[in-house]
């Protein structure tokens, strides 16, 4: 299985690892089949994601997709973050092996889960905005 240089870079030197103490939104998504778990922390100010951090327990591709997802949404509006697709994460990493595509789906779902938590904390029903967060399938 060959990984792109970008995947290897984000795995070896992941960006935005850690947690945000007073995060405005926290989302956790896991895949029972492969054992990957991603936790995403967002700091949101005036509808802009000012900071994003993650903690991922999983394979190299899971770490790389988490890292790339945080890079893609930092500094962006919530609306832009909601448009983040797993395909965009895969493309930003110059591709992933087919058996690892589920990792990019986890990254997308973790972002959505954190945004869902953010809306819930604001007293806003997140489902019409974010959609339902489903545990990803293999």
From TrEMBL:
Xref: Pfam families: NifU_N (PF01592)
PANTHER family: IRON-SULFUR CLUSTER ASSEMBLY ENZYME NIFU HOMOLOG
NIF system FeS cluster assembly NifU N-terminal domain: residues covered: 3-122
Lineage: Bacteria, Bacillati, Bacillota, Clostridia, Eubacteriales
Protein name: Nitrogen fixation protein NifU
GO biological processes: iron-sulfur cluster assembly
Source taxon at top rank: Bacteria
One GO MF term: iron-sulfur cluster binding
InterPro entries from the UniProt entry: NIF_FeS_clus_asmbl_NifU-like (IPR017787), NIF_FeS_clus_asmbl_NifU_N (IPR002871)
Organism (species): Ruminococcus flavefaciens
Stored NCBIfam families: NifU_clost
